Structure formats: C-alpha cells, structure tokens
Amino acid sequence: MEADETVVDGRNRRWEKHRARRRTELVDATLRAIRRHGASVGMDDIAAVAGTSKTVFYRHFTDRAGLYDAVAERVNSNIIGDVAGAVGNVDEVVAFAEGPDTDAAWSPRQLLASAIDAYLRLVEDDPEVYRFIVNAPLVPLSERTDTGDAASGVSQSVGRQVGVLITTALQATGKDTTPGATWGHAVVGMVRAAADEWLREGAESSGTSRETLREHLTKLIWGGLSATWPDVDRRPAKEVLE
C-alpha cells in the first residue's frame, strides 16, 4: 500500500469511529428526551436536549425513521442482554434434562419466568421508552414496516432468543425440535400483549405487580411447555428470583 493510501485509510477509520461515537451520543440524548418529555417527544425537543440541531440528527440518521431504528436497536440490545442472561446458559437446560442428580441451579420454569421478567422490567422501569418503541409516534405511518408494527424487530429478536431455549430443551429430551422457533415467538407475543395491557392500565398502580403478572404468564405458558421437560417436579425449586 502506498504511503498516501495508508494516510487516507487511517483518516477514514478515525472518521468512522467519530461517526459511531457521535451516533451513540445522539441516541443517548434521544433516550433522555423521551424520559423527560414522554414517548410523543418531537424532534425539536430531542435536538434541544442534545444541544444541537435537527439537521445534525438527519445528517447521522437520514430521517426520523432512521433515528427510531437506532433507538430501537439500543433497546433491543438491552432486552436481549437481559433475556440472554436469563436463558442464555443452555447448559442449565441440558443438565436439568439429564436427571435429578445434576447440579443445574435453575429449573426450566425458573428460566422461563426470568425471561418474562426481563421483558416486564423494561415496561415497569422505563415506560416512556417502551411506549416510544411500541407506538413509534416519531415515525410516520408511511415509513413503518409492512405490518405497521414498528416494534416488530425487537419482538422478533427476543422471540428468537426464547426459541433457542425451547429448541435446546426439546433436543436435550429427545423430542422433535421443529416447534421450538414458533413457540419462542408465541411466548413473546403473549408476554408483549399482556405487558401492553398492563402498562395501559397503569402498570404497578393498576393493582397488579410485575411479580404477579410474571407468575400469571409463567403459569399459563408453562402449562403448555412443561411437557418439554420430563418430571419437572422431581426436586424442589430453587428460589432465584427476587
């Protein structure tokens, strides 16, 4: 590589890092604006919180849909991180299927409950951000996905993660793994629908706590999934959730 090409390449890398850092800062500012002004926050308020202009946002995200996608990706990563922390240790699933003398710390039901809890925590702890992701008031209808569901990407990602858990359990117990992916998305769809209604009614102030809603959903979902693991009641459950 010629010396001048090396210089240009180095400048390009520094510019890309600068753009990535700036995008991160603008997403951070957007989240602060959502929490301060609510899910229906407009671009003027977002720019004011960021201490810059709307032009700068459009330069980095092209349009409002691009900014929404960046915020959704951040929230998606946070949820996936929490869900992955709950269900990502597939060794626990395999160990539980191997017999009562294994050292699996979490029962399958507890893994399911923890995954549900990870989703509900976002609704409870960051309701305006959740409303922003689900309702996407910033994005014109003409710029949304074909289904009109702006939050479908987040739900699909979480559904895939839960599907991995279920598929692993089916495989560990010698069962047909074909339904795993479908069941993963079905579980997330159920949790999301219940979470949306819970938030509409006021979340914790509705009289139903997150813990209660988690248990209601776990009971309903587990009733269908318990056949995935044989003899799930063969030993006492270990309390791992707060």
Automatic annotation (TrEMBL):
DNA-binding region boundaries: 42-61
The entry's keywords: DNA-binding
Keyword Repeat: no
Domain named HTH tetR-type: residues: 20-79
Species of provenance: Knoellia remsis
Name the record gives this protein: TetR family transcriptional regulator
InterPro entries given in the database record: Homeodomain-like_sf (IPR009057), HTH-type_TetR-like_transc_reg (IPR050109), HTH_TetR (IPR001647), Tet_transcr_reg_TetR-rel_C_sf (IPR036271), TetR_C_32 (IPR045823)
PROSITE patterns, per the entry: HTH_TETR_2
